[in-house]
Amino acid sequence: MFRRTFLAFAAVSALFSTAALADSELLNVSYDPTRELYQELNTAFAKDWQAKTGEAITIQQSHGGSGKQARAVIDGLEADVVTLALAYDIDAIAKKGLIAADWQKRLADNSSPYTSTIVFLVRKGNPKGIKDWSNLTKQGVQVITPNPKTSGGARWNYLAAWAYALHKNNKDETAARSFVGDLFRNVPVLDTGARGSTVTFVERGIGDVLLAWENEAFLALKEFGNDKFEIVVPSESILAEPPVTVVDKVVDAKGTRKQAEAYLNFLYTPEAQEIVAKNFYRPRDAAVAAKYKDAFPKISLFTIDDEFGGWKKAQETHFADGGIFDQIYKPSN
Amino acid sequence: MIPGFGLTLGLTLMWLSLIVLIPLSGLVLKAATLGFSGFFDTILTARVLASLKLSFGLSLIAAAINLVLGLLIAWVLVRYEFPLRRILGAMVDIPFALPTAVAGIALTSLYAPNGPLGWLFGLIGLKIAFTPLGILVALIFIGLPFVVRTVEPVLADIDQATEEAAACLGATRFATFRRIILPAILPALLTGFALAFARAVGEYGSVIFIAGNLPMVSEIAPLLIVIKLEEFEYEQATAIAVAMLLASLVLLFLINVLQAWGRKRQGTA
Amino acid sequence: MNRDPLPIRILLIALAFLVMALLIGLPLVTVFAQALSKGWGEYVLALLDKTTLSAIRLTLITALISVAVNLVFGVMAAWAIAKYEFKGKSFLLTLIDLPFSVSPVIAGLVFVLMFGLQGWFGPALQGTGIKIIFALPGIVLATMFVTFPFVARELIPLMQEQGTEDEEAAVSLGASGFQTFFRVTLPNIKWGLVYGVLLCNARAMGEFGAVSVVSGHIRGKTNTMPLHVEILYNEYNFTAAFAVASLLALLAFVTLAAQSLLEWKKGHA
After folding, report:
1. Which pLDDT belongs to residue A6?
2. Which residues, at least 6 apart from B60, have a Cβ–Cβ distance to it below 8 Å?
3. Which residues lie closer than 8 Å to A102 by C-beta, 6 or more apart?
4. Which of C73, C114, C259 comes nearest B15 by C-beta?
């Protein structure tokens, strides 16, 4: 009884005490799967920054669906940096004048300090024998993916499948269209976000294969046990480049440009790249990549620029209102 | 005449305008930038219509089911003494207090094929989670407290002497219920129905977990609004919202008029 | 106290328990089972986490402000509507109901449309240092919008059922408006008022969708409890997510305590 009273007291007193304030503060607005990654990166950067400048710095995190996060920044969420799932979402912020139009050229590697790709997560033993994209359209195979309309990750899923079909059919768009249509007809549940799909697949036991970010698939193995699931690497997949940039309007108003730029540059350092690799993102740094080359399966990767002519075009053709993705769900009559 | 009419009505209108009407008019103005034809082009697509039909249809069914279940629970809580009565009464508020996302997750884990209830219903070949039935379960869950909590105080307030008099005069229990109790609680029942319905139409958080979200099948209208927002199509998103708002407005108004009419009739009878 | 035959009583009570167990009991058990799946130690640790505590603090502040404001408004609106006859009453009632039918996503969006950087007042606010959305004021506004009708809606059916005789008598004996309200009306509507406040509070603390739009999800800063639950859940930290959710479920026991207290007072009056 006493112990419980004490705990209640401790809880209440902690509730009304305020945390110590750091000298400066950055807000990183990011997408869903990067929470664990940035928690580690932020601690490392704060230490590095304090050692170099003597200034204590706190980095606040905000996570959510990539598109929703971009909208929040557009509507006034004061993000010093954005680290989103796809360039299109940052373009949308740039279009409102908050970020310089040439933002993607400001940092190395298309402003993407880490990359990932799309792989398959299947149940242990791979009972449906899923090896490649072509298996996903077979009858009786249930595919779990989030909705490309609401999830950035799902857009990479979709585009990877589309490009695969183009390659297999001599760039025949009609064939690609029917391939992707067949694939989505095998989808029994369209969650709104990547984590939702993982839960549907893992916890609810729905579906035979989950299309997921490589980092998410590895994380799922780590969290839910590799005795239950295994990763299948398709013959080819898409190179996903989640970009980062400074929000110019915000840092100039807050006077945090120096810190924000240092923060993003830090992401390219060997120390940060190690953290990136440990969190199952593919590092850009050649030395770190070589060190971790066995951790990541070999896979032939194509880029969105080569296959689709960039995000803007891909978005307009496939995911805009009435685009190809919408047509999959048009009633057949 | 009781004093305070001007004061209370005036402040009510002011507050209503500040918190509800002005923000909502912003919504309408945003949708209006689409123009008349743009508005209807957005609404009158097969997919939007299907989602509206699904949202409104299921909400009506859920509210009707809640009407019966809610009356049952309110009746038992007010009229009978039994063990655990207070616990039962307190649990009624759970659907409000539990964040909708949590409710959605909990319901999904129960009704998914590998959950206990999902397995049970699976035995008779019924799939609940990831079908429109799953949406219905979620909507019943979030709407139940509305009916219970609006009927309960009114039911408690009914003068039981009238009932006893009716019974003394030889009226059956059923006749007493129909002639004396039902008319007294009917406005509250209708209110509960209207509120449960209204709440269900707009519900998002609990439904997306259990719905399956397949276009044309289990995609609710609020999800389509979110999808439009993701496309940065604010105007179209607000257009769907305005269409839903107008439809709800008409339905709620009809229910309120019906109620006022019922009360007048009761008063003059 | 009642003359329903025993078999009917037992049947109805059993049915009520069944409905409550299936609809609300099982989801509740799911929440607590998950929260305690790693034992009490983990449960308490999850709740004492710094970001969890800041979410609890934010939720308490938000609920306190919105409930207090809506209480005052609700009583006035109920008074105006229940005690007087005037044209357009049904329409006013419908407008008060409206926030229920507005999808939570839209309830958040309307404030973004007003106070967002691209909204009506956003550009003017920028540079003044006043933050509305993605800060406490926006969260409170969205919560007030969503919980707007609760108190009024709970009181109106009850006050209508009670009629105006008592108040008229008080006024004819020379009581002022305020005296009439505090001495005559308030004791009569006590129950409805308590339910209204409890529901309003439960909903204010549990609101997810609307707050999600205006919060900005800054960890430890603008996350309310429901948003924090979602974040923890998305981090695969299921134990902590359900632990926080279970705190909200415990609100039901506040209802229980309030009810018991009132009944006890009634017995001792």
Report:
1. 52
2. B197
3. none
4. C73
Q: Identify the bridge partners of residue A319 per DSSP, sorted by sequence position.
A: none
The amino acid at residue A42 is N
Distance from CA of A191 to the nearest CA of B (A): 7
pTM: 0.87
Interface of C with B in 90-129 (CB under 8 A): 90-107, 109-111, 113-114, 119-120
d(CA C194, CA A302): 63
Rounded Cα distance, C95 and C110, in Å: 16
Q: Using an 8 Å Cβ cutoff, are C99 and C149 in contact?
A: yes
**Edge-to-edge strands of the sheet including A244-246?**
A57-64, A24-31, A81-83, A244-246
The rounded distance, in Å, linking the Cα atoms of C209 and C212 is 5
Which residues share a beta bridge with A25? A58
pLDDT for A31 beyond 80: yes
Q: Can you say whether residue B170 is alpha, beta or left, with left for phi > 0 and alpha for psi between -120 and 50 degrees?
A: left
Chain centre to alpha carbon of residue C169: 34
Q: B113 CA to chain A: closest CA distance, Å? A: 7
Q: How many CB atoms lie within 10 A of CB C199?
A: 25
Residue given tokens 């933002």 in the structure block: A103
Q: What are phi and psi of A64, to 5 degrees?
A: 175, -175
List chain A residues with CB under 8 Å of B134. none
Across all residues in chain A, what is the average pLDDT? 90
Query: CB-based contact (8 Å) between B23 and chain A?
Result: no
> Between A119 and C208, where is the model more confident?
A119
What is the rounded distance in angstroms from the CA atom of residue C218 to the CA atom of residue A28? 9
Following CA atoms A29, A31, A33, A38 in sequence, which dihedral angle do they give, to the nearest 10 degrees? -20
> Distance (Å, rounded) from C-alpha A242 to C-alpha C177?
65
Provide ipTM, 2 decimals: 0.84
Residue B126 has pLDDT above 80, yes or no: yes
3-state SS of B79-117? Answer: HCCCCCHHHHHHHCCHHHHCCHHHHHHHHHHHHCCCCHH
Q: Are B131 and B112 in contact (CB under 8 A)?
A: no
Q: Residue A22 is which amino acid?
A: A
pLDDT tens for residues A293-328? 999 999 999 999 999 999 999 999 999 888 999 998
CA-nearest residue to A96 within chain C is: C118
- Residue of C211, C234, C242 to mutate for A, most A C-beta atoms under 10 A: C234
Residue C266 has what pLDDT? 64
